[in-house]
């Protein structure tokens, strides 16, 4: 298949090129993200390969459909960026990579917690300036804390196991309980109870109409004072303005986010020479107890390799007209 690859980064190209010699596909790597202005680049291709911030909305899908490009391979797990109703109406076939090293994301959530707990990001800078003062570096133990996990699918499950290993009490909320986790000692609770009991809360559910602004003013009010809130899932699970208020009142004691509600026009680019226009992220960056990474939780060698392998498998199935193992459908 001729594949138009959008939002290309050097690490994508490197990882996918390693697999290309074993497959009969031709890739055109485009740096721009997919939107209604760039969709025309897909002309003459059989499929597009897109990432989390490539929007497959009605306009883009209509343009692609007019060009006869109706195969989409998402090189990510989440598919909230796709208008599935329109895609189905236009006859698109859409596949994703449902799980690629869930441990990569779970371990990044742990990295955020550990960094916030022990302030290693501050210690690193201090020591490099020959400053060995320990003032202001008092941390807290993670062992013995109650960790609340919202969403115990592939990533949430890996995260629960890590936190059990550290010696946390792990409580969870999911619309579907996981028996294996229960046997390991994870207690499922209603969301309200999880919010009031957790010292650390980590979000691992998908973004959809039920979970949009799951963490809002009311839910933040239910949390323990000084709670550690971690989001490696999707930015809009947290209402940014509400969490800023909760940081100001110290309700949220630490915030670690790899995803941000308005990340779409911000992340995955070097913007160091630009004037930052986004007031919310600018405010978030002023808090000493906020740690932000730019959607890198997935970025390990192992995960990139898995993403490439599964995407090639998805392409093979699409080309063969075979049953699609990783098809994304409306209400699925
Ligand atoms: P998954 O589908 O395996 O698990 C999601 C879990 O959330 C399921 O158990 C599901 O039942 C649960 N869930 C659904 N709706 C819920 C609700 N309303 N309340 C509570 N739980 C709910 O997905 P996953 O592979 O574990 O990934 C989770 C999310 O992580 C993805 O949707 C994606 O947005 C995000 N993600 C982020 C990165 C990153 O780099 N930061 C990488 C991969 C995935």
By CATH's scheme, which homologous superfamily of the largest domain applies? NAD(P)-binding Rossmann-like Domain
Strand order of the largest sheet: 8-7-6-9-10-11-12
Mean pLDDT across the residues is 96
Task: Find the structural class using helix and strand composition.
Answer: alpha/beta
**What's the tally of helices?**
12
Give the SSE string. EHEEHEHEHHEHEHEHEHEHEHEH
**Poorly predicted segments:** none
Number of domains: 2
Principal-axes geometry comes out as globular
Rg estimate, integer Å: 21 Å
CATH topology of the largest domain: Rossmann fold
Which keywords apply here?
332 residues, alpha/beta, Rossmann fold, seven-stranded parallel beta sheet, five-stranded parallel beta sheet, 12 helices, 36% helix, 15% strand, binds nicotinamide-adenine-dinucleotide
Structure description:
The protein is of the alpha/beta class and 332 residues long. It has 2 domains: 2-100 and 301-320, Rossmann fold, CATH 3.40.50; 102-292, 3-Layer(aba) Sandwich (Rossmann fold), CATH 3.40.50.720. The protein is 36% helix and 15% strand. The strands form 2 sheets. It has a 7-stranded parallel sheet, sandwiched between helices. The protein binds nicotinamide-adenine-dinucleotide.
Secondary structure blueprint with pairings:
Blueprint: E1 2-5, H1 10-19, E2 26-29, E3 47-50, H2 58-66, E4 71-74, H3 84-90, E5 93-95, H4 102-118, H5 120-128, E6 146-150, H6 154-166, E7 169-173, H7 179-184, E8 187-188, H8 191-197, E9 200-203, H9 217-222, E10 227-231, H10 240-248, E11 252-257, H11 279-286, E12 290-292, H12 301-320
Helix pairs in contact: 1-12, 4-6
Bound molecules: nicotinamide-adenine-dinucleotide.
């Amino acid at each position: 298949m001729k594949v138009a690859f959008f939002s290309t980064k050097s690490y994508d190209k490197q990882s996918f090129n390693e697999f290309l010699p074993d497959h009969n596909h031709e890739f055109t790597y485009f740096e721009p993200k997919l939107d209604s202005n760039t969709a025309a680049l897909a002309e003459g291709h059989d499929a597009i390969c897109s990432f989390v911030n490539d929007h497959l909305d009605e306009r883009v899908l209509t343009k692609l459909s007019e060009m006869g490009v109706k195969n989409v391979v998402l090189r990510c797990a989440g598919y909230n960026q796709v208008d599935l109703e329109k895609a189905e109406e236009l006859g698109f076939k859409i596949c994703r990579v449902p799980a690629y090293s869930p441990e990569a994301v779970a371990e990044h959530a742990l990295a955020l917690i550990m960094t916030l707990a022990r302030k290693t990001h501050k210690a690193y800078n201090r020591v490099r300036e020959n400053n060995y003062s320990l003032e202001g570096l008092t941390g807290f133990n993670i062992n013995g804390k109650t960790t609340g996990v919202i969403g115990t699918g592939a990533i949430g499950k890996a995260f629960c196991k890590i936190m059990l290993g550290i010696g946390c009490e792990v409580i969870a909320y999911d619309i579907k309980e996981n028996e294996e986790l229960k046997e390991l000692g994870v207690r499922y609770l209603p969301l309200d109870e999880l919010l009031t009991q957790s010292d650390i809360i980590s979000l691992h559910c998908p973004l959809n109409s039920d979970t949009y602004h799951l963490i809002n003013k009311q839910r933040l009010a239910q949390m323990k004072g000084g709670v550690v809130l971690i989001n490696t899932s999707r930015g809009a699970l947290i209402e940014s303005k509400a969490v800023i208020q909760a940081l100001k009142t110290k309700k949220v004691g630490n915030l670690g986010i790899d995803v941000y509600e308005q990340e779409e026009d911000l992340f995955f680019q070097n913007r160091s020479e630009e004037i930052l226009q986004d007031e919310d992220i600018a405010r978030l960056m002023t808090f000493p107890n906020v740690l932000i990474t730019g959607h890198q939780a997935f970025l390990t060698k192992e995960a990139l390799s898995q993403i490439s392998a599964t995407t090639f498998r998805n392409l093979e199935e699409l080309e063969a007209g075979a049953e699609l193992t990783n098809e994304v459908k409306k209400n699925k």
